[in-house]
Structures are given as C-alpha cells and as structure tokens.
Amino acid sequence: MKKRRFENIWNAIEVNAREAANLRARSELMIALQEHLRADKLTQARAAKLLGVTQPRVSDLMRGKIDLFSLETLIDMLARVGAHVKLSVRFSKRAA
Asked: What pTM does this model have?
C-alpha cells in the first residue's frame, strides 16, 4: 500500500478542494464559537436564547456535528455573540 501525504487533514478526508475548503472554514468557525460559549460558562439553554436557536441545536454545535451547520449559520451565530469574522483568501500555486 502506497502512503500518501496531504497538506492538511481536510484534504485527506474530502474528495475535492472546494469541499475541503468549506469544511475547514466551518470547522474554524465552529471551534471559535464552542470556545467562546465554554469561556462564558453559558448553559445550553442560555446559549440557545442568545443564539436564537433551540437547546438541541446548541447541543449539536457543542458536540461538533459540523455537517449540520452551514458557513452562513455559523457566521450568524458568531455575530449574535459579538464576534467579528475576518476572512483571509490566498491562492495556491496549483490553482493558477
């Protein structure tokens, strides 16, 4: 069996660069939101009210069910807790 090397974990588990980039972005946003909610020591019920979602939705968030959250949803949730999302775009040499 031949070993393959990947630039990062997302490229290893996703079939194309677009999906990998989307998953990477959602992961970073989800982790930032999870860390913020933990740091504020909010109950899931309180976090749900703050985020404008249900408690089970917060449970999904805190358990890392990334497939249930779009980029738009995560950005909206972060905005509701006062976060400012800043994007960084860079081009790979292969894309040119």
From this structure: 0.79
